[in-house]
Amino acid sequence: MVSGREHLYFGHQFATRSAKALPDYAVQYYVDILAADPEALRSSFEFYRALDTTIEQNLRRRTRRLSRSRCLAGLEWTRR
């Protein structure tokens, strides 16, 4: 559906959905990469394909608190 029209689709997305306008060269660079590789294009939509599952997981996760050891382990990971 988007293949062959990457510049039109993503150009519109960046122009209308970005919180902050990106420079034209940045949008062009990103879209060129997606247009050059069908796997890159397919992969760019995986986040949206998984969104329902991600929302469901997040709703389940927020019902239980993390143990202190998990919080500390996460903190240690960020310091690497």
Total number of beta strands:
0
Termini separation = 41 Å
Rounded to an integer in angstroms, the radius of gyration calculated over CA atoms is 18 Å
Strand content: under 5%
Features:
elongated, 80 residues, mainly alpha, 6 helices
Give the gist of this structure:
By secondary structure, this protein is an all-alpha fold.
Question: Mind sketching the topology for me?
Answer:
Blueprint: H1 6-17, H2 24-36, H3 38-44, H4 46-49, H5 51-61, H6 68-78
Q: How would you explain this protein's 3D organization?
A:
Helix 2 (24-36) crosses helix 3 (38-44). The longest helix has 13 residues, at 24-36. The N and C termini lie far apart (41 Å). This protein is elongated. With 80 residues, the protein is mainly alpha-helical. It is built from six helices and no strands.
